[in-house]
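Glycosyltransferase family 4 protein, pasting as requested.
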Amino acid sequence: MTPVSSNAPHGQSPLRTVQVLGGGNAGSSAHVRSLAEGLVARGVRVTVCAPIEADRAYGFTGVGAEHVHVPRSSDPVSVAALRTACANADLVHAHGLHASFRAVLALSGRTTPLVVTWHNRAHAEGPRAHLLRLLERRVVKTAAVVLGTSSDLVDRARRTGARDARLAAVALPARRRAAGLLDPGPDALDDPDPRRPKIQAELGATGRPLLIAVGSLDRQRGYDVLLDAARSWRDLDPVPLVVVAGEGPLRPVLQRRIEDEELPVRLIGHREDVSELLAAADLALLTSSWESRSVLAQEALHARVPLVATRVGGIPDLVGDAAELVPYGDPAALARTVVRLLADPERCATLRERGARQAATWPTEDETVAQVLSVYDELTQPRPLV
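Structure tokens follow.
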């Protein structure tokens, strides 16, 4: 079999791949951009099928990939557009459940290999949960390889009927560590970020601890538990300020609770400067009911910010001993852990050091691309002469 991990040998056409992305959360969209950039650099032709908004936000064409607008919908028109885009592909790689299902429909009747990456677990209740299970079964039984970003996703794929399920190497893209705000280096504790006081002042956290949470304002994120815990922090002196960056359907409900209960919490909406927020934070908080490779967890450890996270999904494997883990849905445990850390600078210093060491064990972008290329190599045959 002809390797595809570098520019195509003389006389052979380059490998043609299609990357299929649905609505795309921040993690999967950034991953596809990073993957596209690495593949193009290695001589692979890449077409990214995604909504036009995703290309505007993540710049797939800016790294040398072709972009084809395919709406997130699974209606016949969208599936037909995807089928056309995949017509000459040697391999199709879909990211996320809905994108994967559309790829299955688009490839119906074709022998084009399908690789699927599960970045997260779909959440639903009632009849919709049953529908999602059916979609998962259809996808994993069609895919040649399913890559899961955490071991529990790999196990789920195997239980659902995957022929071949593997743990994916997924790096935190370098652009998420831009401007030198993350990976501050070993001298960070002795040389605080000069932007820290300015950011704290802008957030209203001067002279008080600043706790940062990041993520969409939906039920999965566990922000109701975070607000329950914040109620107990009102008795501290000074009172910590919790800042939540993100937007979502629960914003009116959360805002009403904050105002009615006079909680020390601010909702600041969607932000592009998460790295700067972390540079000013005393602690990072992750209260979700489930996560795979949480971007916030990775950014916090890279930035040497002590992390308190729920012991769910792929979080324990991701952070190792470099974070304080608490049960999901337990506001008392969350509150106690935060209070203890705020009063224990030595423990915080230990977590910072461990965080930097743990982050160094995570795969790089080059390693991520290399793994994907090895999978592509297994599934593609030598291509005909030009």
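Note for the archive: Residues 26-41 form the longest helix (16 residues).
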